[in-house]
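Friendly challenge for the regulars: who can give me the structure tokens for this chain first? No prize, just bragging rights.
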Amino acid sequence: MSSASFLSPPAPRLPCPRARLPPPSAAARASLGFEPRRAAPAKEWRLRHVSCFRNDSDVPTTSDDDSCFKYVAQSESSGAAEAKEEEVGSSNGDQEQSFKDEGWFLQLQKIKENLQGKILRFQTECWTVPWTGQTIAQVMILWIATFWFVGSWIVPFLAHAAGFSKETLTHRGQALYSLLTDITEGLAGIAILHQCLGRFRPLPPGWFEFNLKGRWLLDVALGCLSFPLVNMLSHINISLVPMSPGPVVGVSSVEQSIVALALYAVVVTVCAPIWEEIVFRGFLLPSLTRYMPLPWSIVASAAAFALAHFNAQRVMPLIFLGVVMGGVFARSRNLLASMVLHSLWNGFVFLDLMK
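First reply, four minutes later:
Bragging rights claimed.
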């Protein structure tokens, strides 16, 4: 092909008229499945969404009406929040008042429980008693018999064998005689305990404890507060029971000898408290807890302590004093506490006689 053929102009295009097709008839439309176009529904205005607050999905608006509506909604919500806060505050105030009332009641209840725990805390801890009532009765009967036999027969017999008579002794000799008698009776009682309880050794914890540590001095100080009441009971008992006739040793006769005074002081403030507390508080009181509660054991041992003095004019004060000393011992679990209290009472009586 030559180059001239590329440079020749293209053939002209003839116009082609477009013919419109006639619309199909109704029968043709029905056969073809055409449906007539329905008219568009009339437009209606409906409120789709009204919100007092702006959400992320809402269309942002900047009109004044919307801002006013938002301000009113926020003010109403803040008022509702304030009212709710007032209600919560009033309810909190009522709760605080009720808590205060309950707090006072709980505090009083705790104080009461603490006092009961401090006064009666020894009830929860009782001794382990390995022996039975037969051993208890055996020890006490032997002790009473030995006490009477030593004081009425053995010591007078030894004094008579040595050429002394109690009636002819001087004040110093009588004081020494009382001291030797008391020491002998105490050693005899300790020997009875050692012999009767020997088969139960080693003893359980808490028996015959002596301890310098602890708060037992406070218990002793509280026990000393009962001395005026014991003294008052002593005067009442003396007024109820008439004085039995018999020779009475005057205090003036004792005061004639300083040595006699010192010997009598040792008897009443050292010897008697030691062995009496070992027998009545160290042995009898804990042993009775096997058969009765601790308070009743304290009362029973106090009654035995009073009857062991063989003096009807001193039963009431000695029972009360025995209860006090038993309580001190039961709280402290320390024989040293009851011994010190017993010694202080005897010293109080001794000084009262010196007036």
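The radius of gyration is 54 Å. Residues 2 and 8 are 11 Å apart (CA to CA). Your move, everyone else.
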